[in-house]
Amino acid sequence: MADLKLNGVGKTYAGGVSAVADATFEIADAEFIVLVGPSGCGKSTILRMIAGLEEITEGDLQIGGRVVNAVEPGDRDIAMVFQNYALYPHMTVRGNMSYGLRNQGMPKAEIDTRIAEAARFLQLEPYLDRKPRALSGGQRQRVAMGRAIVREPSVFLFDEPLSNLDAKLRTQLRAELKDLHKRLGATFVYVTHDQIEAMSLADRIVIMSSGKIEQIGTPMDLYTNPASTFVAEFIGAPPMNVLQASGQAARELLSLAPDAPADLGFVGVRPEFLKVGDTGVKAHVTLVEPLGAETLVHLALGPDKMIMRGGQDHVFEAGSEITLTLAPSDLRFFDPSGRRISAA
Amino acid sequence: MQKRVVFRHRWLPYLLLAPQIAVTLIFFIWPAYQALETSFFLEDVFGFNRTFVWFENFTALFSDGSYLRSFWTTLIFGLSVTLLSMSTALALAVAANRVLRGKMSYRTFLIWPYAVAPALAGVLWFFMMNPSLGIVAYMLESTFGVDWNHYVNGRQALLMVIVAAAWKQISYNFLFFLAGLQSMPKSLIEAAAIDGASPARRFWTICFPLLSPTTFFLLVVNLVYAFFDTFAIIHATTSGGPADATAILVYKVYSTGFVGQDYGSSAAQSVILMALVIAMTVVQFRFVERKVQY
Amino acid sequence: MVENRPLATVTTHVVLILGIVFLCFPVWVALVASTHPGEALARSPIPLWFGTQAVENYTQLLTAGVPAAGGVPLATMMFNSLIMALGITLGKIAISLLSAFAIVYFRFPLRMLFFWLIFITLMLPVEVRILPTYDVIASLGMLNSYFGLIIPLIASATATFLFRQFFLTIPDELVEAARMDRAGPIRFFWDILLPLSRTNIAALFIILFIYGWNQYLWPLLITTDQDLYTIVMGIQRMVNVGEGIPIWHYTMGTAILAMIPPVLVVLAMQRLFVKGLVESEK
User: Which Gene3D superfamilies match (chain C) (predicted)?
Assistant: First the structure.
């Protein structure tokens, strides 16, 4: 089966521009890995290097124990689903799904079986003889997945496959993808810039920024124990409040946490850990966004700004003053370069 | 613009390019080079000897009254053809863009002359203006008392080839003007109408300026057409006559080389024309690329 | 938009009808002339309505030609025109597709040199380099042959440029998907690029067919053998027969026959033709 090993993988373009540097991690067989980060962080480049669409300029890549740096994309035992689906517009759904198999010289009977199976699996049976332009966005997306499934690869690669769909369809297909992964039992490598997608899909997340890996871990791991201010601010919506340690807000919050480490650069706290209490830190409510189950409350402590997630037990009013409290263990500490300092 | 992904292959791209490059080298580059080389030589009548004469062929041309006249003829011919066919086509395109019903059938009737060969266009008008039996010549004489005879009257001969050349080019200009008008945002015209501009004012202040890229593009294309592609019209009808009145530059290259057998001079004329085409193409590229617009 | 100007509407239609009359009148006169006996066209004014000799005139033209102008049957000339037009069209499309494919989908040494070499030809119409090109054809022994008529005209910067532009609009992901599907360059070209280019090929076909059919100077130079005359160039000999012999009815019949195929192509495939014309010039 297929586990992936990236060993010091890097990509430097001809002009000397480095897109990815020293990426080292392993992906276990049947794992669902999501590469996430802002655009230009190198996540797509890593995926394309795994696919064999970009040359690896440093380090090596193993798929199932075999170094594949110089192996053609068609021979890597992988399949890829593209952001814009990349369906062949002049071929029918059936033609699209069978093209790769025909190129391998697979007997027609077997091709037909596989297509029938995948079509049933993806509920594409009524559309097999249609051209892609006669399908909706969601159906095209399924065809793109079908094209990958029929090849029965050991690794599936997804390049932002849901970003061209509307919000409702995206949520629905997200669930289907997760289900698909469970049923196929194959390795999934998935790229997205959407942290919600990453959180909801991944077994483990690889979060990247400017060509480097910031942190690798399970979604909850990244959420509760971000390795850097970057991760803290990227994961979660609204993100973690990250405050300059020397600022007024941080100093007041730290007064509630007696054993904070020295050499602090930043202090972080998730919006849901801020509570309204009787004693604590005074803050001004500047804006209230009621969302139903919860309310996002924008706060100002002097010049510093924070967001708290309020429950239904308290009515917030813009312009009023509230008293904040929190458990010291909910504070996260970062050094001046933004790296996490574990609690003493 | 470049592709992000390309195929890698050592010799395949060269193989793919080979036919095109071979034809280009053999039938384009090599003859062009030959013309350049020959233009610096003087060949004797029998073609046995040739002498390197520097720019003598060129200086001879520019001191030759008939060649300089040919420049003028070409300029008058080119500008007249361009102006006549473009203004007619613009009027037709504006009209066709206005009609609501029958748009397609009007278009059909207006575009087919594009397919008529220039030589045939020349022959048609040659027949219509034939001094002894041409229908147009007859009408000119009976209605206006014009004594039409392009066999002896150089101006009339030039006018005839101008009309023939413009007639053939109207369809082409019409199509591009119509495409330009149709791609114009409707909201602009509507805004102008709400601002109280009359249809004529709307055209001159909104449509015409917005058409400027098309107009400029057509200007260059029409000049190139008039300078080079009209050879057939002239060759099939007036043969440059009477008395060189319709001998435009391309016709001169042909008559000097094939009829007069003066290879050096013909080659020098070729070189001058090539320089002219290259200059026009560069102008076209620079302006069209930048899209003449505000 | 609400517009209530009856006068403007009338003017519009008058302009269009005048334009159509101006464009159609010469052809009408030619068509009428080709149905009369030669003597009817000897004095002015010539008839403006059909005569009775249509069948005789066209039969004579197609099967025996005009004796005073060499007597080559027009059927032969039209066949030659067709071969030349198709040869030029298919040749141009084939070699342009291949070279555009090479230039867009490969990176190789000297790529830009080749690119410019091809595009320089844009600037050099046959008319400006007649003599040396003739010499090349002569020394290759290609005078009086279909090859001589066709091959030198099949290098086309325009078609290459058009296909290059089109290929550049095809999403990169399609190539990537094809590579995932184990398609090499040839297979990609054949299975994906070619089918996707169908409309462009068809549109270009129309433009190039007209271009090929209407060639004049080139066949004039290359062919001295009457059996290879093309119709557009053949008409010139009839015109030059002179005033003495009354063959205008034949000349006009020839003009009509010569314009029928390209005009039919334009009318039958109007939409593709407009697309081809507008895009090949951009």
Answer: MetI-like (1.10.3720.10)
pLDDT of residue C243: 60
Query: Residues 6 or more apart from A287 whose CB is under 8 A from it?
Result: A297, A298, A318
Residue B292's pLDDT is: 40
Class of domain A239-341: mainly beta
Which residues of chain C are within 8 Å of residue A81 when distances are taken between CB atoms?
none
Encoded tokens for C202: 């068809």
Over residues C195-239, the pLDDT tens digits come to: 999 988 998 899 899 999 999 988 988 888 888 899 988 888 888
Pair of tokens at residue A220 = 């909850």
Is B67 within a domain?
A: yes
- Contact criterion met (CB < 8 Å) for B235 and C26: no
Interfacial C residues in 35-74 facing B (CB < 8 Å): 41-46, 48
What is the structure's pLDDT at B290?
Answer: 54
**Residue B6 placed within a domain:** no
For the segment A169-192, what is each residue's pLDDT rounded down to a tens digit? 889 889 989 999 998 889 999 999
> Could you tell me if residue C167 is left (phi over 0), alpha (psi between -120 and 50 degrees) or otherwise beta?
alpha
- CATH assignment of A4-230, among 3.40.50.2000, 3.30.870.10, 2.40.10.10, 3.40.50.300: 3.40.50.300
CB under 8 Å to B176, separation ≥6 — which residues? B214, B217, B218, C278, C281
The CATH number of residue B205's host domain is 1.10.3720.10
Cβ within 8 Å, pair B91-C15: yes
The whole-angstrom distance between C183's CA and the closest CA on chain A is 7
pLDDT at A36 over 90: yes
pLDDT band at C4 (very low <50, low <70, confident <90, very high): low
Interface mutation target, options C131, C235, C279, chain B, most CBs of B under 10 Å: C131
Q: What is the pLDDT of residue B291?
A: 47
Positions of chain B with pLDDT lower than 70, given as ranges: 1-2, 44-48, 287-294
Q: How confident is the model at residue C273 (pLDDT cuts 50, 70, 90)?
A: confident
Least CB–CB distance from B273: residue in C41, C122, C128: C128
Instruction: Collect all residues of chain C within an 8 Å Cβ-Cβ radius of residue A141.
Output: none
**Can you give the residue ranges of every domain in chain A?**
4-230, 239-341
- From CA B227, how far away is CA B251, in angstroms rounded? 10
Q: Which domains does chain C have, with CATH numbers?
A: 74-280 (1.10.3720.10)
- CA nearest A77: which of A180, A184, A152? A152
Query: Rounded to an integer, what distance in angstroms lies between the CA atom of residue B250 and that of residue B235?
Result: 10
**What was the pLDDT predicted at B294?**
34
> Which residues face A12 on adjacent strands?
A18
Q: State the residue range of the domain holding B102.
A: 58-290
DSSP string, chain C: -----HHHHHHHHHHHHHHHHHHHHHHHHHHHHTTS-GGGGSSSSPPSS--S-HHHHHHHHHHT--GGGT---HHHHHHHHHHHHHHHHHHHHHHHHHHHHHHHHB--TTHHHHHHHHHHGGG--GGGGHHHHHHHHHHTT-TTSHHHHHGGG---HHHHHHHHHHHHHS-HHHHHHHHHTT--HHHHIIIIIHHHTHHHHHHHHHHHHHHHHT--HHHHHH--SGGG--HHHHHHHHHTT-SSS--HHHHHHHHHHHHHHHHHHHHHTHHHHHHHHHHHT-
Q: Are A262 and A334 in contact (CB under 8 A)?
A: no
How many domains are there within chain B? Answer: 1
What is this model's ipTM? 0.88
How far is it, in rounded angstroms, from Cα A120 to Cα A74? 25
Nearest CB to C180; choose among A83, A90, A100: A100
For position C36, what pLDDT does the model report? Answer: 86
**How far apart, in whole angstroms, are the C-alpha atoms of residue B187 and residue B179?**
17
Q: Is the pLDDT of residue C105 over 80?
A: yes
